[in-house]
């Protein structure tokens, strides 16, 4: 038994989904059609037999009134041809039997009905070469049994014709079920086939620009397969963006690394001929080499940080943004002594904590402060504020520099993006991209805007709780 089940399972696995669905749908409809035809056959046969029995009972009632004054009577010539009902009466005592032989069979059960010891009953038999159905009942007020018989060959032929007709209907239903099953499988799985073909094409070409055509229809009334195709298209869009971002990151990183690596090679070759340089030239080349090494190291570290999609969960803890902000501002004052940093925090915001990695959040704040200080004029202020805004904790960093133009605003968080006014400033263009990535990893929202009165305004919102 287990071997047959295993063979059936292997057969199903080897068949395409469309074939299995067609077979399942066809089998379901065919079973319903065959079941209905079978039930109809038994109902027709029962009703025709029941109608014959009612005719026998009515005939018996009519002859009971006629034969009340008669004595025992053997069947007449009608019992020989069975064209009309065959009727005879049988006494309970054999000594009272008529001289003529009975046309219908008489046995002990018939005598028991005549004596009132047995209930009326129906029976099947053959008389004069014809199949008949006989009804035996006791005559009222007499110790005699009345036997009434009718031919059943007409009923049998009617049942046979009904069986043939129903078999034809059932066969047509099976064929129709097969056609409908095939149509349902092709129609219902057409989007799945397109999805499979698209996936195979993407796997073969490694091109995520392909999409599945969705049927037109009112929004919100799509079926499951259409929603699956739409989700697959969304996934392809995300994959295409991810691949494009990866290629752009590699291209930008290659471009950004080319200049410092060229300068490193130049200074390294220059120091290789140190015996031809003066002490001042050697010190200048050595200092430039050290600065360029730090720039390349910082750039590589930033790229590694940007390659991380999420924060390491074992390092997540409850941190106080107010304390992190004060620490980041103190560090920025030491790094940018010519900039006036100010901190303003609501009393309610001091005790608020958020889940996060302290080192990563500190990096986010330092990147925002460094960016603000970079664009602030010497002696200009950089204002920071921490406050509860509704159901969120909001931190703002504002500078009084040239601000962000409308053309640059959509791109300030892009990797390696640098505005025209920032081309001459130090940096690789990764600080704000890293800040937004850290914010998203902490389920926070980082936005940029033009500050009222000039300058740039960065707003970081942590969800409450």
From TrEMBL:
SMART domains, A to Z: HAMP, HATPase_c, HisKA
Pfam families listed in its UniProt record: HAMP, HATPase_c, HisKA
EC number: 2.7.13.3
Domain Histidine kinase: 252-465
InterPro entries named among the record's database cross-references: HAMP_dom (IPR003660), HATPase_C_sf (IPR036890), HATPase_dom (IPR003594), His_kinase_dom (IPR005467), HisK_dim/P_dom (IPR003661), HisK_dim/P_sf (IPR036097), Sig_transdc_His_kin-like_C (IPR004358), TCS_sensor_his_kinase (IPR050428)
Domain HAMP as annotated: residue spans: 186-244
Localization, UniProt: Cell membrane
Record's catalysed reaction(s): ATP + protein L-histidine = ADP + protein N-phospho-L-histidine
Keyword Zinc-finger: no
One Gene Ontology MF term: kinase activity
Keywords annotated in UniProt: Kinase, Membrane, Phosphoprotein, Transferase, Transmembrane, Transmembrane helix, Two-component regulatory system
Keyword Coiled coil: no
Transmembrane segments: 21-44
Name of the protein in question: histidine kinase
Native species: Streptomyces chrestomyceticus
